[in-house]
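Late entry, written up from scratch paper. The run itself happened at the end of the previous shift, but nothing got recorded in the book at the time, so transcribing now.
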Amino acid sequence: MMKRKSITKILAFLIMAVAIFAACTEETANVRLEPTLATANTLNITSDSATVVGYVIAEGDGFTERGVCYNTAAAPTVDNSKTAYTKDTPEATFYVTLSGLNYATKYYARAYATGEAGTVYGEEVTFTTKPVVPFLSTAAITDITGNSATGGGEVTGNGGADVTARGICYSTTQNPTIENSKTTDGDGTGAFESALAELKGNTTYYVRSYATNSAGTGYGPQVSFTTEVDLPKLTTTPVTGITKTSGVTGGAVTDNGGADVTTYGIVWGMNSEPTLTDNVIDGGMEMDSFVVEITGLEKYTTYYVRSFATNSAGTGYGENIEFTTLADILTWNLPGDYVEASYPGSDMTNWNPGNSPQVISTIENPASLEGYVYFGNANNAWKFATQPNWDGPNYGDAGGGVLDPNADNISTPKGFYKINADAAALTYTAVAQVWGVIGDATPNGWGDETPLEYSPKISRWTGVIHLTAGNFKFRANHEWAYNYGSDNNDGTLQAGGKDIPVEIEGDYAFELNFSTPNEYSYTANSWGLIGDATPGGWSDDTNMTWDTTNNVFTLTVDLVVGKIKFRANDGWDVNYGGDLNALSAGGSDIPVAEAGNYTITFDPWGLTATVTKN
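Output as recorded:
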């Protein structure tokens, strides 16, 4: 804008001069114009220099000197600071560079020209020099330890612009910058203190204070210091291979602290953060990666372990790792000729103890084993194998539910069975069960369970039941001797547990899962459609109902162009999207390309869906 205005002024002078010349008569043709000068522009402004452009409009009787005068006050003259134009053959436009200026300072400048008639001046222009980086001092380093120190500095001048950040930068090489390690200690001028942390022991560091303003970053003088020997630094390896009486751990010395490590290894005990006064295991030959085995532990007991290393400064420790040895829990396998037919699609095989269903005991009752097994053949032969191989002992039925290693195979008709075994008394029971849902939320109330159906394909009891607001539990064989509730209403089941509440009426798809002994679970999901293509948008589900003929959830609804997903229980914990032929949990939104009336179906077990425009 300044340049445009200056050019306009120059043009105005030129027009004026042309007009004067045009007004001259032949008699007055030799009359000279009065000397006239213009100050056109300022260029290339730095922190200590600037270029000012002058223009001679009319030279009059001639100039003996031309240049630019300047001052920090208005209306500068040649009696103030000035810089003369020094070219031998001056042109009408002349450029003068002013140097030695003060940073971040406002100046007033005018072109001048001196001749026989005196000195004439052009228009006044102003400019402000740019700031420089801040000025600093660096404080001596104090409070030096093996891994920390205290430093600081002082911003003695802001360089003409606000200081936005300050601190110290440090490195193990000289002349550190803010690209190395640094502290951040406020802004503005004045003194500041800095804390250096996570240093290496017995190491020389170089330090400079720094401060940043709009001109850049300035640095103070460099100082140096050397840390003391520090404690070694280590990592502790998580405990693996945990058994009832042992575990495997280890560690690594990642920093020797600046001095030779004399001993290293593992400390362990029953109290958190064990030390050398507890149990100690030497780390062996590989300090940067050592492995040790802890043995002689108690069953089902919590222990703590840390790596350690010692140098001249003392002993350093790695992370404190907690682990618990295995309880005295028994796992028996149930190999037989039924496995492949009963568990289709699984890795289990016939008469293979390591790939067969299991019964497992609990910590509270280590001799009492339990599990659920499906026998899919008309008649099924099987045994108890106490190991995942045939090394034994292996038990058959000696009669009356008595287990004997010399007895023949156990024979069981088709069905879903609850298996219990007593490892101390060597007895067992196998009770065929049919499971259902009972409660005042169910169609039969508390009088009788509504049955579920067992699916060998997914090893679950499944079914869809219309529930009202109320409560329910799972029960088998019309007997309260076999019932499960959920004490925390969290999808886990406990024998005889609390009633499970239902708040919203609807059709609920059930899955009852007895696959893992002593860790039984369930789901009960009502399904709906959600998305910006639905009447409720992304806020409210449009509920689906169960089609008993086609065994799918269904919904007929008007949709607009947008997207949809399938969602359970009016919440996002369980939702499906993606490919309609293979829906995935949390999958992508399903597009609806055309508005209209649609029939939607959803199979909660096959995880397929259809979206059909009517």
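Helices lie at 2-23, 339-342.
(Scratch paper discarded after transcription.)
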